[in-house]
Amino acid sequence: MKLLLACSLLAVSLAGCSSTPKAPPTVRELESAGYETQYLGADGQVVTRSTRAAQPQETGFWRGAGLSGAPSIVIDLGKQEAYFYKGGELAGMSPISSGREGYRTPTGNFRIIQKNRDHVSNLYGNYVDSAGNVVVRNVGVMEDRRPPGTHFQGAPMPYFMRIVNGVGMHAGYLPGVPDSHGCIRMPSEMAEIFFENAPSGTPVAVRH
């Protein structure tokens, strides 16, 4: 009996491997399966509707290639996530790391006022010696004294998009908690996508 059951299972397994792959589900099939996505309502609040959707992954997701409409970004400090919208429809999500205690990321409604693909900080970085060895890591030039024989080396901030004062979105390290000096760090691949799809002037709402 056990042998017969094993053979039956093996046959089913082999048949599954050799069968023709299923076509991707249609939008209607996804909707009927209960998939949901988020939209920005007229009052700026996030609403959820049943529609086609992709499941978010650890590094975020992007499904905005086929979407049109004005871009906007919402930063949720409580969830440590950034949401990109096109025409009010959710186009992508990225995990973030915002400002740590003492360097809280400011909340409010902003716009992207500067973009620089190869930005380097003039405020935060490392003190290094003449050979380029790091002597003091993760310093702020305004508060950390420079040791003799060292010079300041600014931290790289690829795909930088400034929203207010010295605060912006950029690629950087994400430890899973707020850790920056106020900026909004993102995984490199998501920072690049947001950078390419958000022109100067794009609205950015930062909320708790």
Poorly predicted tracts of residues:
1-37, 49-57
Strand order of the largest sheet: 3-6-5-4-13-7
Helix content: 10-25%
Shape: elongated
- Strand portion, in percent? 35-45%
In short, what is this structure?
By secondary structure, the chain is an alpha+beta fold. 16% of the residues lie in helices and 40% in strands. It is built from 3 helices and 13 strands.
Structure commentary:
The protein is of the alpha+beta class and 208 residues long. The protein has helices at residues 2-18, 27-32, 188-197; strands at residues 36-40, 46-50, 61-62, 71-76, 81-86, 89-95, 108-111, 114-128, 134-140, 151-164, 167-171, 184-186, 203-207. It has a six-stranded mixed beta sheet with strand order 3-6-5-4-13-7, covered by helices on one side. It has a five-stranded mixed beta sheet with strand order 9-8-10-11-12. It is elongated, with a radius of gyration of 23 Å. The chain starts with a helix and ends with a strand.
Short descriptors:
single chain, 208 residues, alpha+beta, six-stranded mixed β-sheet, five-stranded mixed β-sheet, 3 helices, elongated, disordered N terminus
